[in-house]
Design brief:
Helices cover 47% and strands 17% of the residues. The model has no long low-confidence stretch (mean pLDDT 90). The chain has an eight-stranded parallel barrel, surrounded by eight helices. The protein has a two-stranded antiparallel sheet with strand order 5-6. The chain has 359 residues and is an alpha/beta fold. It is globular. Helix 2 links the parallel strand 2 and strand 3.
Length: 359
């Protein structure tokens, strides 16, 4: 059985201790970002997710800079179709693949907020954004296909004899992750993606949602926070510290943002948190930070063994990959890859042994 794959959310400012602290969006600490990426490289992190938002620097030039300063870690570029033509985007990704020696993957996102989409001149509704995303991915797949000129006419894109001299490094195409909780996101992932990524839930609920993807041969991934310590008591003490001094004004801002958005993923995460009283969805899954940080803040909390065992429950539910982050990002990354991952691998080895013995 394949090993679980683990990625990390790249933070351009990894020093936040409190779950409610705001990221500095008015500066770019490139040296700090390079140090973070080099740390991930040394720890054996498979990939760093490079998010796209009006609050962040554009990820493409950052990836170009980080790729030249690292050797093994890959970069998952988050991108929302509609900002660039599919031909130009493919050309850019191909170029980055050569700069990075093929260490580039794509996280294609339809967008979570109509307000933010409007900042970029995009006013399509939720399902129309996914329809455009499908056309976009169709053209990308053809451009990464047999090398023949690509002509395409759809509702959102038209290209005539599109062709590129520089292909993807090593041939083929990058791995493609499709994000979103909606049914249309699932179908897009099955048709055009390698992995469907969504925000977290309990393993029981994830198993229900993952079933059609698993049946179609599409991998399933989760975006979560993680807080692991040697003992559960230490983890709970740390969680209490992280959640102290909450900013209720920021909580109100997040609530208004969610209500104004049209993302089923974001709304579902907030609903889960509210139904749990902003507490525990399970003994390991904590929802209290979602009100202050949104969907990705659903957090695995416990001892190294508890967190590792819970990850194995997700694996049994059909999950193959995770993108984690934490508070502070770099500290938790070191703890997870240094302390939790070895326990996960031991559990996986034990499981493989038991499966082999049962044959």
């Amino acid at each position: 059985m394949a090993e679980l794959r683990f990625h990390w959310g790249s933070s351009l400012d990894s020093g936040q201790k409190k779950s409610t602290q705001k990221y500095r969006s008015d500066l770019l600490d490139l040296d700090g970002a390079i140090e973070f990426a080099q740390d991930a490289d040394a720890l054996g992190v498979e990939s760093l997710l490079m998010a796209q938002s009006y609050t962040l620097p554009d990820p493409l030039p950052i990836i170009g800079a980080l790729a030249r300063e690292t050797e093994r870690v890959k970069y998952i570029l988050a991108y929302r179709p509609g900002l660039l033509s599919p031909t130009l985007f493919t050309q850019i990704v191909n170029t980055v693949s050569w700069i990075s020696d093929g260490r580039i993957a794509l996280n294609v996102v339809a967008g979570t907020s109509p307000v933010e989409q409007g900042y970029y001149g995009d006013f399509l509704a939720h399902d129309e954004r996914y329809a455009r995303e499908g056309e976009f991915l169709d053209i990308l797949h053809r451009l990464w296909g047999d090398g023949k000129p690509v002509s395409f006419t759809g509702d959102h894109y038209k290209v005539v004899d599109a062709q590129l001299g520089l292909g993807h490094k090593g041939g083929g195409r990058p791995e493609i992750y499709i994000s979103g909780n909606s049914a249309v996101a699932q179908q897009t992932a099955i048709r055009y993606g390698d992995c469907w990524f969504r925000y977290g839930d309990t393993p029981e609920e994830i198993a229900k949602a993952a079933a059609p993807l698993v049946a179609a041969g599409t991998d399933v991934g989760l975006r979560l926070q993680v807080l692991a310590r040697e003992t559960r008591e230490e983890a709970l003490t740390e969680l209490a510290e992280i959640m102290s001094e909450t900013d209720e004004n920021h909580r109100a801002y997040v609530k208004a943002f969610v209500e104004a958005g049209d993302s089923e993923a974001v709304k579902n995460s907030m609903r889960l948190a509210e139904e749990a009283g902003h507490g525990w969805l399970s003994p390991v899954l904590y929802s209290g930070a979602v009100a202050y940080r949104g969907g990705p803040a659903l957090c695995l909390v416990g001892s190294y063994e508890e967190v590792a065992a819970y990850l194995m429950e997700y694996k049994a539910a059909g999950v193959g990959q995770f993108i984690f982050s934490g508070w502070p990002a770099r500290d938790e990354m070191r703890i997870f890859f240094g302390k939790v991952l070895p326990v996960v691998r031991a559990y996986e080895k034990e499981l493989d042994g038991s499966l082999a013995g049962a044959r």
